[in-house]
Amino acid sequence: MPTTDATQLASPTAPPEPAGRLHRQLRLHSVLAFGLAYLAPIIVLGTFGVISEKSHGGTSGSYLIALIAMLLTAASYGRLAREIPVAGSAYSYVRRMVSNHLGFLVGWASMLDYVFIPMVIWLIGASYLNAQFPTIPNWVWIVGFIVVTSALNIFGIKVADRANLILLATEVLVIALFTVLAGYTVTHHGQSLISLRPFIGEPASLSALTAGAATAAYSFLGFDAVTTLAEETVDSDRTIPRAIMLTALIGGGIFVVSTYFTELVHPLVHVIDIDSAAFDIAKGIGGAFCSAVFLVGLVVGQFASGIAAQASASRLMYAMGRDGVLPKRFFGALTRRAATPRNAILVVAAVGFIGCFLDVSTSTSFINFGAFIAFAMVNVSAIALSRAQRARGVTVRVLPGYLLPALGALVVVLLLTQLDAAALIVGGCWLALGVVVLTYLTRGFRRPPPQMDAGA
Q1: CB 3.0–4.6 Å: which of 10, 224, 306, 374 could bond 121 by disulfide?
Q2: What residue spans carry the region label Disordered (predicted)?
């Protein structure tokens, strides 16, 4: 089977939907809510202490650096989503624009991100609940998250969509309350609300801010996940690019603003454990009631994020199953009534049970590796798209077509180098395993991997 040529792009106009395919039923507000729910904006407070320590108190600056990197990458995702409106995200884009073999490896690396993120989300939510209710074991909460989330996703994307809107609204209200109380506490102590410290840290250090940004990028994972809904979105070639940019921009704005006020109030509150600093801050600025509301908001955010993360992971596995990269009969199947990839959803649920035997630190150490590999290659794919368009006689401007994607790739690679050794080792081993699988599928690279269905 011949390798896909870079100039053979999918038509932006989607054909009529045949039976057995995903149904187009989502609009911009639903896709945007999906992306923001995946981000779980309130997790910015849950991870505040760790990033604050790494950045020397410059958490807002670290998030700003991460936001710039994500916006550059989001622009590349938007261009590619407009040209290639299919499920599969970075996996599909790299296969179409760069190489079948590299596309497979990007998809494999992305699986480390997509498939394990739901487990991490459920584990974090269970850990917070276990800390509040220590008599109930962690595994009980994890099982509860998995069962309810999986049921919602199997019933259909519209059911998950309605649940996401409610949960996301609750989450945003809790963040707003936390931010207002933090600002009030700062002024009540006679401190100014205007300061550069949350952006530069004390002492100021670019390397510390960059290290903080590498961790902060975890909070952005999900802006790209909306591309996995391309085949379920109305007018996807316009809606998906807009949703990508809005998800990154709105999510980044929430992260920068909320951490700014949290850093201002941080020195005024005694923090017992840096890993749960936001809990201590919530109690310090609003008493037991605020800390209880914060816990509810955090769990709600993790639940909403789990719905979106599982849905996204299952769509990636469905796309790879449809291609034959994963067993087609199992992963490429959809339910008759709801047209959801039930088997893939259940596989993600099964992986989630591994969280019963792990801690948060171990499970989150390798997530960013797969994401950064995918982000870098999406920027490379955007450059390849510019070359393909120019070859077809389309005018391509140098700044958005070449320079911005190149800058995005460089910034992402810089963040990749800032990950800890454990993340690089685990990620590298996973990628090496992918090379072995690819070698087997291609009979020693003598033939291309299973081909993407151009009509998908």
Answers
A1: 306
A2: 1-20
Asked whether 70 and 221 are in contact (CB, 8 A), the reply is: no
Going by C-alpha positions, the residue among 107, 39, 71, 105 that lies closest to residue 315 is: 107
Q: Which amino acid would we find at residue 280?
A: D
The residue type at 213: A
3-state secondary structure 79-103: HHHHHCCCCCCHHHHHHHHCCHHHH
d(CA 201, CA 53): 10
Task: Read off the pLDDT band of 158 (50, 70, 90).
Answer: low
Task: Estimate to the nearest angstrom the gap between the alpha carbon of 214 and the chain centroid.
Answer: 14
Gap between the Cα atoms of 145 and 159, Å rounded:
16
Which has the closest alpha carbon to 66: 171, 199, 161, 176? 199
What are the tokens at 118? Answer: 């739901």
Domains by residue range for the chain, with CATH = 28-441 (1.20.1740.10)
Residue 5: is its pLDDT beyond 50?
Answer: no
Using an 8 Å Cβ cutoff, are 371 and 361 in contact?
no
Which residues 6+ apart lie within 8 Å of 371 measured at CB? 110, 113, 217, 221, 224
CA 6, CA 74: separation in Å to the nearest integer?
21
Residue 15: cis peptide before it, omega within 30 degrees of 0: no
Q: What residue has token string 């995702």?
A: 77
Angle at CA of residue 67, ends 62 and 72, nearest 5° = 135
- C-alpha to C-alpha distance for 448 and 64, rounded to whole angstroms: 41
Specify the higher pLDDT residue, 79 or 161: 79
Q: Say if residue 332's pLDDT is above 80.
A: yes
- Both tokens assigned to 203: 């002492």
Q: Write the pLDDT tens digit of every residue in 342-351.
A: 898 999 999 8
Q: What is the rounded CA–CA span in Å between residue 193 and residue 265?
A: 10
Q: Residues 297, 303, 308, 312: what is their CA dihedral angle, to the nearest 10 degrees?
A: 140
How far does CA 345 lie from the centroid of its chain?
17
Give the tokens for residue 289: 């009631």
- Rounded (5°) CA angle 54-56-61: 90
Question: Per-residue b/e over 351-365, b at no fewer than 16 CB within 10 Å?
Answer: bbeebbeeebeebbb
The count of C-alpha atoms lying within 13 angstroms of the C-alpha of 140, restricted to the half-sphere facing its C-beta, is 8
